[in-house]
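Researcher: Structure for this, please.
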Amino acid sequence: MKRLPVIGALCAVAVFGLTACSDDSSSPSEQATEAASELCTDLSELKADNAKLRALNPASATKDQVQEAQQAVQDDWNSVKENASQLREAERSAVQSAAENLKKAYDALPGDTTGQDALAQLQPQILKLDEATTSASTSLTC
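Model: Predicted structure, token format:
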């Protein structure tokens, strides 16, 4: 029976450690994907709260109901604005990181590298930059 609390404590430490590490190790493209997902959620909430405001019956709605529904719409809009800027920042960061990594890889090539060898060695960075620019230029598909 003494092993059960020890195992539970070890599991808790492991889960906490994995959670702590996962936040710090996300790449700029993963951050952009997360921001896009959050923005899509916020846009859905904005649309839903706006529909609730629009659905209020003018004949029976109280001023408090209108104010509450309008405030929900404004709160959603504030979330949309915040996540839109985070998305733009994450996309900019992803493109910047990919471009800098390509430059570093190119600068690290030996002077006698042939064009064919250079392209072969730079291919992973070229693909990352292509992915980042495509992601940044593609509109959200929620």
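Researcher: Any notable elements?
Model: Residues 1-23 have pLDDT under 50 and may be disordered. The helical segments are 3-24, 28-55, 63-107, 115-137.
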